[in-house]
Design a protein that fits this description.
- The chain is of the alpha+beta class.
- The chain has a single domain (about 5-245), classed as Creatine Amidinohydrolase, CATH 3.90.230.10.
- About 25% of the residues lie in helices and about 25% in strands.
- The chain has helices at about 5-25, 35-50, 115-135, 145-155, and strands at about 55, 65-70, 75, 90-100, 100-110, 160, 165-170, 175-180, 195-200, 205, 210-215, 220, 230, 235-240, 240-245.
- A five-stranded antiparallel beta sheet has the order 8-7-9-14-15. Strands 1, 2, 4 and 5 form a four-stranded antiparallel beta sheet that branches.
- Helix 3 (about 115-135) runs antiparallel to helix 4.
- About 50% of the residues are buried.
């Protein structure tokens, strides 16, 4: 069952979303060669505490970090630790916050210094796929219209979308109905209604879309070790269009 949020509840989620946006903005300048991923996690925990929020991820099903840090062939759910960021890496940050019981979730992928043309094109394509998916998050469309637009945008550039992991509804839980694949035929699935709040998150690979989870039980990597990128926003469906709650300035 898809839970519809009231305007007052969406406003509460907007607060969580703005903290997530602020956190990602705070971390971005720290993503540079030589920095350990656990240092980013420590910064994230301090930022969230100061903002009066808690991490949506820390302790979730046993996850040990406040954020996910995934590098190069790591698609999602990278555990912060001793690994150092290097020149030329693609670093994906996934962050979530909870404020007064309401969740928000977002992700970005950043190139570190000079990266390959392929890495730059992958990052740009994944960001554009998210933007186009959000543009289809309007009343009257179907859920698969978002999914199909993401897939079409990605495959036009000869990249592939990951199929094992999908976006999701979000609200008083991190993961709610409905699941939001990044692939599919248009004009299928539930109609989008005012009050739906969706975490739309394209995960895209430069090679094949097959992934596997490492021995830590969390980190998902491409099987062929090709590069991956990940972008995400929490989006509310309103009668005026899609309201991006995790944008640095909420956009509609």
């Amino acid at each position: 069952m898809i839970e519809l949020k009231s305007p007052a509840e969406i406003e509460r989620m907007r607060r969580s979303g703005q903290i997530v946006a602020g956190l990602l903005g705070h971390l971005m300048p720290l993503i540079r060669p030589g920095v350990k991923t656990k240092a980013l996690d420590a910064e994230a925990q301090a930022y969230l505490s100061k903002a009066g929020a808690r991490s949506a991820f820390l302790g979730y099903r046993g996850f040990p970090g406040a954020i996910c840090v995934s590098i190069n062939e790591e698609v999602v759910h990278g555990i912060p630790g001793e690994r150092k960021i290097r020149e030329g890496d693609l670093v994906s940050l996934d962050a979530g916050a909870v404020v007064e019981g309401w969740y928000a979730d977002a992700a970005i992928t950043m190139p570190v210094g000079t990266v390959s043309p392929l890495a730059r094109r992958l990052t740009d394509t994944t960001r554009r796929a998210l933007e186009r998916g959000i543009a289809n998050a309007v009343v009257g469309n179907r859920l698969s219209d978002i999914s199909h637009t993401v897939q079409e945008t990605v495959e036009r550039e000869r990249f592939q979308v990951v199929r094992e992991f999908v976006g999701h509804g979000i609200g008083q839980a991190l993961h709610e109905e409905p699941p939001i694949p990044n692939f599919g035929l248009p004009d299928t699935g539930p109609r989008l209604k005012v009050g739906m709040v969706l975490a739309i998150e394209p995960m895209v690979t430069a090679g094949r879309c097959d992934v596997e989870v490492l021995g830590d039980g969390w980190t998902a990597v491409t099987k062929d070790h090709s590069l991956a990128a990940h972008f995400e926003h929490t989006v509310a469906i309103t009668d005026r269009g899609a309201l991006v709650l995790t944008a640095s300035e909420p956009t509609q």
